[in-house]
Amino acid sequence: MDKFYTRWQAGQARGDASPLAETMSHNAPMAKLPLALASLVLVLGSASCGSPPSPVPSPSSEPTPSPTAVPTPDAVAPTVTTQDPAAGGLLDDAGITVSFSEPVRAVDGASFQLTSEGGVISAIVSLDPDGLGATLKPDVTLSFATTYTVTLSGLVHDLAGNRLARTSWNVATTNRVSFAPGTYTGYQFGDSPAHLTALKRSTLTSPSTATASAWQTMDDAGYLLIDAGIWAGYWVHGEPDGTALDDLTAALPGLPACDYVDLPAARTAYGQWGTTVLDTVFQLPDGYVPPDLVDTSQAGLNGSYYVRAIAQEDLAAMIEAAGSAGARLAVQSAYRSYAGQVLTFNGWVNQSGYAQALRVSARPGHSEHQLGTAIDFKTVGGIAPWRYADWATSTEGAWLAANAWKFGWLMSYPKGSSALSCYSYEPWHYRYVGRTTAAAVHAAGVTLREWLWSQGYGVH
Ligand SMILES: [Zn+2]
Q1: Gap from CA of 374 to ligand 1 centroid (Å)
Q2: 413 Cα to the center of ligand 1, angstroms
Q3: Distance from the CA of 429 to the center of ligand 1, in angstroms?
Q4: Distance from the CA of 206 to the center of ligand 1, in angstroms?
Q5: The pTM is what?
Q6: CATH class of the domain defined by 252-454
Q7: 5-172 adopts what CATH topology?
Q8: Domain ranges of the chain
Q9: For residues 75-80, average pLDDT
Q10: For 176-194, how does the pLDDT look when each residue is reduced to its tens digit (9 = 90+)?
């Protein structure tokens, strides 16, 4: 196999375009460029490696092939591809790859340079032995979600002398988190230099690809910073290439069937009001009485009903907005104690029988009304909302169905979802979960029970 070699020499100004003139210049002085090109060898195409035979036979005693041994190229200028900046990547150890569309050679001293906004980045350049490209390995770890520029200086052309069309290319490190839709643990960290203390831990669901803008290690674990969407500001476990780890979805048991059993609900601390899963299965302790109940008159509604103070501000804003839209809302029922729910449920049993009561009312301990964050609304001056064929077709019911989520309130038992929500359609029953959660549930298009379960909130 006879090959010939061309050395690319940084800083060596030659006007000779002949590749043979470049042969074996081992001792040429190196320019003080960041890339140690003088130690790199570019092997151009060989006539005996699957290429057509040389039209001009070379003497067997002559080890150096003639220029005519080089395959005849076309008249098209070579082009260059690098990684697609939009696709990101480049945070592994592979380095940045520059690929030519056909073999090229350098005439003048040619060098690759890697730069960022901060200036030149030292890198080791490996030239492809077939003259088809090069790989740059930076001496430093590249930053996350950053665009770098690769510049090739010097005269470079293909074997027919067609000059390279471009000599500068942008490449980018990854900035996309490859979140499969699923459930992950999100973290927020304090301002301490080490960022070692997780201030907030929250399971979150990513319905689609999320964008991350940073990656760093803390306590020997890597984290990606989500910078867009409702989870912006959270960190999740992930790899520097943007792959999120710890998808919790597979670890979650499926949504329980709506059996009539009594299991203690998870997350029943008073501060966990927005994430407590209550259904026919899980219940609150009978002594669960929110400490901050306030009269609904404080939110511009009829009084002598109670709701937790944490919901009061958004409730007032919602009632005001509804009023401006001509929807005159009143309270049918709000907070109910465990003992109060005993009376309510028994009332339904007496009226409709036990089987029907189970579908329309919660057994004691299972009601969201005991949380102090649920309200049954009605129309001012109107009859009980469940006496309507569908209260959601009233001005008030329709306004709530369309707008309540914007104020942190969700219809717990939407139409056609009783197998998932565990209760019949109740267009009047709304639960406050806060604006962030409400927006997430609304965007997910699922019932609150499904969403809370998907977040892992239902699991002890
Ligand atoms: Zn209700």
Answers
A1: 6
A2: 9
A3: 4
A4: 30
A5: 0.54
A6: alpha beta
A7: Immunoglobulin-like (2.60.40)
A8: 5-172, 176-250, 252-454
A9: 69
A10: 666 666 667 777 776 554 4
